[in-house]
Design a protein that fits this description.
By secondary structure, the protein is of the alpha+beta class. Helix content is about 40%, strand content about 35%. Helix 1 packs antiparallel against helix 2. The protein starts with a strand and ends with a helix. The structure holds coenzyme A (COA).
């Protein structure tokens, strides 16, 4: 029986979360962007101090657990003015992919967005990341190219992907115009 638990991060989670992020990112991103950029991004975005700073800025982290084991994590930032939820991090350990946990996690984030009266999810994903197909399967569509300078000579060459949570987004776009 599935025993996946998703809960908000607590301080004691940050060290194991940073270790899990290092393992996932090294495995997944080194072939795409190289070791130097992965090391730089881990330090800048997924170190314990970096995550503490993000939490202080309004990011919300969630850990995904199976029993005692942390198997993944997510981070989001609500944007109430724009009625959007930015999905900043969405990661599962390699050994736990491809069996429906990602879909469960996305459903969790959709519920969270709806509870906060948000109408749209968005995220950025590297153009070479095979997870684009997963996001498409989960109802996202590519909305734009987005290239971000992250310093030290590195750029993130991404797609911006979006998913509307409105039952009939076309109708609402017409009525809003
Ligand atoms: C993205 C990620 C969290 C998704 O989790 P997951 O557990 O693998 O996803 P699921 O097994 O729930 O699959 C979700 C859907 O995508 C489909 N899917 C999975 N892999 C796929 C692939 N390679 N191509 C096409 N569809 C795929 C599944 O069939 C499922 O659709 P269905 O429920 O209609 O059958 C996980 O794969 C991951 O951590 N990837 C590496 C890190 C990463 O790139 N994160 C995103 C950073 S932007």
């Amino acid at each position: 029986m599935r025993s996946i638990e998703i809960r908000p991060v607590v301080e004691e989670d940050l060290e194991p979360l940073a270790a899990l992020a290092r393992e996932i990112w090294t495995d997944h991103y080194v072939p795409i962007i190289g070791q130097a950029q992965v090391d730089y991004m881990l330090e800048r975005f997924q170190s314990v101090p970096a995550m503490r700073a993000q939490l202080a800025e309004g990011y919300e982290y969630f850990v995904v657990r199976d029993g005692e084991r942390m198997i993944g994590y997510m981070a989001v930032r609500p944007e109430p003015q724009e009625r959007r939820l930015f999905i900043s991090k969405f990661y599962l350990h390699k050994s736990r992919r491809g069996s429906g946990t990602g879909r469960l996690c996305m459903e969790f984030l959709e519920r969270l967005a709806r509870q906060r009266s948000l109408e749209r999810l968005w995220l950025t994903v590297n153009k070479e990341n095979p997870s684009i197909r997963v996001y498409e399967r989960l109802g996202f569509r590519i909305a734009a190219d987005i290239v971000t300078d992250i310093g030290n000579g590195f750029v993130m060459d991404d797609y911006r992907m979006e998913k509307s949570l409105l039952s009939n987004p076309e109708a609402s776009a017409v009525s809003a115009s």
